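Collaborator request, handled under Task 6.
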Amino acid sequence: MAQGVPTRVDNVVIGGGIMGAAIARQLAKRGLGSILLIERDLIAAGASGRTGALLRQHYSNVPEASLASRSLNTFRNWNEAVGGDCGFVETGLIVTMPTLGDFEDNVPRMRSVTDQLRSLGVSIEMVDRDQLAAIDPAASFDDVGYATFESASGYVDAIAATRSMAVAATRAGAVILEGVAATRILATDSRVTGVETSAGAVETERVILAAGPWSPALAATIGIHLPITAQRVQIAIFQTPATLPHSARTYVDNVAAIFCRPWGVGRIMVGLGGGEVHDQVDPDHYAWSNDAGFPELTRKAAEARFPGFAQARYLHGHAGLYDMTPDGHPIIGPVGPDGCWVVAGFSGAGFKKGPAVGEAVAGAIAGDLIERALLEPFRLDRDWHTPWSPFEYRLAHDFGHGF
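Structure tokens returned to the collaborator:
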């Protein structure tokens, strides 16, 4: 075996994104035995390194809202909670929903969701068009009736946060190996026995599979079917003219069908809702760069929210992957033989929940009944057709994940 690769550990975490790093750290902090995290490429080389890292808390269902809110507290207090720097920037976050015309029924839903989120401790308010204009003078809201504003939210540097979490995991005692690929999970009929890797086999009694869109292929090696597909999603970075107002806010804009945030001085990152720009792909073979027509599609969509965006200059962009489930909610919990856990299928809305997922998974493994109850809705054998909330919105555009 390659130098430094152990032959036996108590826990193997597969996947070096924010989920894997957070889980490894929390397992180590709880003293749950020896921990090895293996990553086929580099830490944050997959979806975690290509996300926009928007920290939205606006969910109509309590389980995901709870994880997002709990994680935001960690991101906001990163140095004290984790150590190092995650690049958190507080911008406030605006979420628009269609509330005009045929979508007026979303207004009472938004009121109910806002009240529910406040009961969870989320700093959120429902605002009208005039209030939005005051919150972001750089934007136009003629097509918006109501929206929500999370004053404490914003974004982070996804790679910095993931690497910092990985460093914290090693400080807690975990071993992290980059460039080591898991090729097969080993198990008897009743329990996990190890992991076969590109550097040889590792014996273990517990495997936590947190490899995003690569998780289904590994789960299949022990006969577990994960209903997860890989969806390619693009973002583009634009430079805005110095003579035009520059929005300092972060958006998940279901009316204009864009998500966006500042990307340094004078720049803005913009992504689009679903449709023809979200395509199912093989996670091992997909185009990492923008399609030729994507910048112009994105520019036109952003013009609906930001007057004068036609003058913005396209700089660069890339594509990342969503690990999609049929209902847009993740799979978190034990599956198959004893000792196997899956933490995947976040459908494009996972990064913001990473720190809390790490805490909840490690807690549930340790037998914490509160953490187990929190994760119960995410089990693999759930009803995939039942809505998670009585307040789910009707949307004109699909971002891949739910609200």
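The cover message to the collaborator said: "The domain at 90-154+229-324 is CATH 3.30.9.10 (D-Amino Acid Oxidase; Chain A, domain 2). The longest strand covers residues 313-324. Please let us know whether this matches your experimental observations."
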